[in-house]
């Protein structure tokens, strides 16, 4: 695949992947992928991440059942970031919030929870 | 601001900031911020980035006029990523596409331009 050679992976061999709900446009999470993960993502139609803390390949939902089915794969002008639109089953966040970005900060520093917490 | 102490900056002192159109939900670009940049972002109501290639602070539109006015600031469960919703004037991408994520890749490796190119 030609575009793979246009992607730039960082010093640790990773590229950030923004995961977005394909229906609502909500940003669900930010993950990281290795080159093999990008290839596998396009092959199996699910985002294949690299866990920086555990140093392992992971696919959302393999244990939780909260799977992501890929609907659209985009890459940016510099080839150093991805957007992957998915159909998300259940919450995207391990905290059970629909999105990992559930905390809003206002200019005065006050905060508000802006996401719904889903049942298990 | 309490939340600042919950943010995790990487080895280079940076945190990724996903910039999203507040009206359409379109992801426009991915930038990086230093801690000072995050503070300044909330103060001046525009995303304040750090250019990794030029090693300088930058604010979108300072030369191009394609400014970003902040509408919403969110941070994620792990405190290692931001979503900033903005009102984007003109194209977000230096290539004049509305979004930096203008190339779509299909599972067979073929590509398509999915964004509109705006006039200067």
Question: What does this protein structure show overall?
Answer:
2 copies of one chain form a homodimer. With 120 residues, chain A is mainly β. Chain A has 1 helix and 8 strands, in the order E-E-H-E-E-E-E-E-E. The first copy, chain A, has one helix spanning 35-44, and strands at 15-21, 27-33, 48-51, 56-59, 68-75, 82-88, 103-105, 111-113. Chain A has a 4-stranded mixed β-sheet. In chain A, strands 3-4 form a two-stranded antiparallel sheet. In chain A, strands 7-8 form a two-stranded antiparallel ribbon. In chain A, a hairpin with a 4-residue loop joins strand 3 (48-51) and strand 4. The longest helix of chain A has 10 residues, at 35-44. The first copy, chain A, is globular and about 45 Å long. The first copy, chain A, starts with 14 loop residues before the first strand and ends in a 7-residue tail after the last strand. Chain A binds chain B through residues 1-3, 16, 18, 20, 24-27, 29-30, 42-43, 45, 72-78, 80-81, 83, 93-95, 97, 100-107, 109, 111, 114, and chain B through 1-3, 16, 18, 20, 24-27, 29-30, 42-43, 45, 72-78, 80-81, 83, 93-95, 97, 100-107, 109, 111, 114. Strand 5 of chain A pairs antiparallel with strand 7 (103-105) of chain B.
What form of chain A results from the Cα inertia axes? globular
Q: What is the subunit arrangement here?
A: homodimer
Task: Give the distance, in angstroms, between the N- and C-terminal Cα atoms of chain A.
Answer: 39 Å
Return Rg of chain A in Å: 15 Å
Strand order within the widest sheet of chain A? 2-1-6-5
- Poorly predicted runs of chain A are none
Mean pLDDT figure of chain A: 96
Work out the helicity level of chain A.
Answer: under 10%
SSE topology string of chain A: EEHEEEEEE
**Beta-strand content bin of chain A:** 35-45%
Number of helices of chain A: 1
The class by helix and strand makeup of chain A works out as mainly beta
Main pleated sheet of chain A = 4 strands, mixed
